[in-house]
Amino acid sequence: MAGTSEGESMEPINEQAVANIYGAMKSEINQIYSKITELEMEVSEHSLVINAIKPLDPSRRCYRMIGGVLVERTIKEVLPAVQRNKEGLEEVVSRLNEALEKKKKEVADFEAKYKIRIRKADEVKDDTARKEGSAQGVLVGPAGANE
């Protein structure tokens, strides 16, 4: 008993535990997706700023928000900082994409191990339609229309 590995001690006990773990994994994937989307929006904003100030005179005044404080600088000082920030954000996005792929593989392995199948909403609708019979899609006119 004392010789069991850590992997075996982390095994879920029942179906509910498997479902909870699976739900947590899917939730984590969704969080990664939303963070990637958020950072990609910031990269896009940085690109807009860079494209807007690049053709301007480097000695021209511009303002930059630093920690909630608006600071007056020149374009020559601000442009490299904005470019560095954009590069840093792009690096974080690429790391998050790698983490996302790793997590997707982990979820796929988990699905295979516990034979998890996800029913699509269309399949659920099809099942209810079969139960209802052939009444679906029939147009009925007002009562007494044939008289």
TrEMBL record:
InterPro entries: PFD2, PFD_beta-like, Prefoldin. Residues 79-113 form a coiled coil. Residues 125-147 are annotated as: Disordered. Keywords: Chaperone, Coiled coil. One of its GO terms (biological process) is response to cold. GO terms for molecular function: unfolded protein binding. GO terms for cellular component: prefoldin complex. Belongs to the prefoldin subunit beta family. This is Prefoldin subunit like. It comes from Actinidia chinensis var. chinensis.
